[in-house]
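Please fill in the sequence for the structure shown.

STRUCTURE ENCODING:
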């Protein structure tokens, strides 16, 4: 976010200060030029050594509820006086429903939010803390807000349960959570016309840094957050792929299983899930790559450098008359005219750069781009089908080999009911594997496992290469179609076939 100048400084017409505080052992504000700025951080608390869950919470909460420090108090879905018992009740219900121990992971989280001296009252600070907590937890977790007045600056201690009130999930600190919290706190403060931190320093020299490390830098994208979590999970050396997925869940990501075995990760605060595949995350981040790392067949993938956002593609021009007929006002007409001029300028630049000053050449180039995209799309679909078939055949072959001795024993026992009851799961796996192999082979001879591994590796490599080409072809097609449509509109050409191609 850009610099936010507090009200006092705006009235004086001065320049915003450069804060220096926020580190360990330092006060939350450093005075420079007479203006201070707010800080925020989040900290998880586990069950303390030698103590129980209730005792741990009581000791921490007593600090926040100290009447000598307390200036204002508010809560959500709990009574601060009995919060330890209420938090534990939800956790006990969660444990009964899921079988996961209360002591596992964080017990609760504490958010600290401080304000410059004299900028807010205790009641106002508490209201801001309550709003921050509500938006951070999305109303899914119990919390209470303690506003302290014992220091030269007002500050909030926000305590929230790590277990959702409806027992549907647990909150896990995720990569970039401090940054996300800082942004939320800053937004709430700006909405209330308060100052925010402009350039905080790192909290420590350790692994986990103060949120201010992100100020003045581009925060990690959703894809980069997923990559970071994947690398961190792989560094813990999971035993298998399901164990890897559990580590991703523990790092705060919701694991989603889609059709065709597609796996996606959804981080807290993220609207759309990120797919686990090389075309989305880059080389080394395909499910097959992850399995190879777990098996010790390849190293942990390197994090790619995030490239700057690509230039916006040319969009279709707006039919101003049609939009005006829908009730748009004069202001919209003025904006649309400027917008259309920009789109036509971009289209003409494209024509000059690609030497397409003849309409026939433009039409041919557009058709070629559309055809190339659809050719790649079909080739990619066929490759994915072959890869899925090969992977399925390999898995079925392994299951068949593991369970064939059990079936042979079943035959030797003359299909004994007792033997069946003792080995029902293995026999079921055997039948399913044999059925899958028969379906996929369709009368063909079963290839050697080494040949199937080689084929899968080649198909996976081909898929990665095709995806990169596919994405570029898609962008080129959309650009070409939009430009031709804009030229057609300018010339009065009414053929809309390319528009339909773009929509596909």
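FILLED IN BY: designer on duty
SEQUENCE:
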């Amino acid at each position: 976010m850009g610099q936010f100048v507090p009200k006092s400084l705006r009235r004086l017409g001065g320049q915003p200060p450069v804060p220096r505080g926020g580190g360990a052992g330092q006060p939350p504000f450093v005075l420079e030029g007479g203006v201070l700025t707010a800080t925020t951080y989040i900290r998880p608390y586990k069950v303390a050594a030698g103590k129980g869950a209730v005792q741990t919470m009581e000791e921490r909460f007593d600090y926040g509820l100290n009447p000598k420090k307390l200036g204002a108090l508010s809560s959500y879905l709990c009574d601060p006086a009995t919060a330890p018992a209420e938090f534990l009740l939800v956790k006990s219900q969660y444990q009964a429903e899921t079988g996961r121990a209360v002591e596992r992971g964080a017990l609760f989280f504490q958010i600290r939010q401080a304000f410059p001296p004299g900028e807010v009252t205790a009641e106002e600070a508490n209201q801001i803390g309550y709003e921050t907590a509500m938006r951070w937890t999305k109303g899914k977790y119990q919390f209470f807000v303690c506003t302290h007045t014992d220091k030269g600056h007002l500050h909030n201690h926000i305590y929230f349960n790590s277990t959702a009130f409806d027992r549907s999930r647990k909150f896990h600190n995720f990569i970039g959570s401090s940054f996300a919290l800082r942004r939320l706190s800053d937004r709430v403060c700006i909405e209330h016309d308060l100052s925010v931190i402009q350039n905080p320093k790192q909290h420590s020299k350790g692994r986990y840094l103060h949120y201010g490390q992100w100020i003045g830098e581009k925060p990690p994208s959703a894809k980069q957050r997923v990559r970071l979590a994947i690398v961190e999970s792989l560094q813990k050396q999971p035993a298998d792929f399901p164990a890897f997925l559990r580590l991703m869940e523990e790092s705060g990501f919701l694991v989603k299983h889609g059709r065709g075995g597609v796996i996606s990760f959804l981080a807290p605060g993220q609207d759309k899930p990120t797919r686990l595949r090389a075309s989305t995350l880059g080389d080394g981040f395909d499910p097959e790559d992850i399995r190879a790392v777990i098996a010790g067949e390849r190293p942990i993938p390197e994090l790619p450098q995030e490239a700057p956002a690509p230039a916006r593609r040319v969009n279709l021009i707006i039919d101003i008359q049609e939009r005006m007929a829908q009730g748009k006002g004069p202001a919209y007409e003025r904006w649309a005219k400027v917008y259309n001029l920009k789109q036509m300028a971009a289209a003409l630049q494209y024509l000059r750069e690609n030497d397409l000053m003849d309409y026939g050449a433009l039409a041919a180039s557009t058709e070629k781009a559309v055809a190339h995209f659809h050719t790649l799309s079909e080739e990619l679909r066929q490759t994915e089908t072959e890869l899925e078939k090969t992977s399925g055949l390999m898995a079925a072959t392994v299951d068949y080999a593991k369970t064939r001795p059990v079936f042979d024993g079943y035959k030797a026992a003359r299909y004994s009911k007792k033997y069946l009851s003792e080995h029902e799961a293995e026999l079921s796996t055997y039948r399913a594997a044999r059925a899958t192999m028969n379906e996929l082979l369709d009368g063909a001879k079963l290839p050697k496992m080494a040949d199937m591994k080689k084929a899968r590796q080649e198909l996976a490599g081909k898929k990665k290469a095709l995806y990169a080409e596919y994405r570029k072809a898609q962008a080129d097609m959309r650009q070409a179609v939009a430009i031709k449509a804009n030229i057609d509109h300018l010339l009065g050409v009414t053929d809309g076939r390319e528009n339909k191609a773009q929509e596909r």
